[in-house]
Amino acid sequence: MLAGAHSPSYRALYKSGELEERARAAWQLLAHCELCPHRCGVDRLAGVLGKCRSGALPKVASWNLHPWEEPPISGSRGSGTIFFSGCTGRCRFCQNYPISQMGVGQEVSLERLAEMMLRLQRRGAHNINFVTPTHFSAALVAALPLAIEQGLCIPLLYNCSGFESVETLRLLEGIIDIWLPDSKYANDEVASRWSGFPDYVAHNRRALAEMFRQVGEQLVLDDDGLAWRGMVIRHLVLPGGLAGTESVMRWIARNLSRNVHVSLMAQYFPAYKCVGEQVLGCKITEDEYKEAIAVLEAEGLGHGWVQEWSPAYS
Question: CATH for 9-45+58-307?
Fold first, then answer.
C-alpha cells in the first residue's frame, strides 16, 4: 500500500450521513448511560455521575505528539494522543492516577475536541490516539463530524483498558481504525481487587473478539511502516504472576489468532496505592519477564513487541 493512500472508513460514514446518525444515537445513550460494562444507567446529560465520575462533555488532561507508543503507531513524528480524565477502572497501581483517579483535566466542548484532533494532524501526527476514551466515546463520535468537515483524514486509534461493552464497540465500527486494548487479567478476583473491574475476564474477551471481528488479524501498514488498520493487544506483566500472563496468551492464540500483534510490557512499577504493598510494591524481576516471553513464544504469538529488560525495571 502506498503511504497516505488509505482513506479512513469514518470519512465514508460521514459522506453517507451514517456518522451523524450514530453521533446522535451515542449522545442520547448518555441519558441512561450504559457505555461501559458497569451499566450505571445514570443520566449524564443531567449531570448525574456514575462509576466513571464524568459528565457528558469530555474532560481532557493533556494532548500532544507522543513518541513512545509501538513503532507503527508512533512512527517518526509521533502519535497524536488525547488523554481523557477519569476512568471506568480503579487500578490501585495506576501510573497515571492523577488523571485517571483524581480527575486532573479540563472539560472541553465538542468543538474544542474536534480542534484538538485537527491541530494534532497539522502538527504531523500519524494518527489520533484516544487514551482512556471509553466513558467519553459518545463525545468522541459527536465531535468527529466537526473535525471531518475541516479536513481530518488520519487514522483513529482507541487506546483502552479492555473493559468494554460490545454494544459500544459496535457503535464505533467503521469509526475506529486501530484498536489498542489491554488484556490485563485472567482472573476476575484479581481484577476486582486491584482494578475494580467486575467480571473483567468475560467482558475483556468479548471485547477483544468484537474488535478482532471488525478489523481482523492483520495490522495493515503503509510503505513507511505506519499502522492504518488493525489491532494490537497490550499486556502488562505484573509481579507474582498476578496478571495471569500464561492464560491471557493462551486465550489470544487459541481464540483469536496467532497472527494478532501483542505488545508484552515490562515497565510495571509500584505507584499510587501499591507503594509498599507486599506483592505489587515491587517491580517485576528479569526472570518473570523472561518467563512471560517464553509463554508468548510457546503459544506461537510471533507478531508484536517485547521489551529489552534492564535493571531499571527491577
Answer: 3.20.20.70
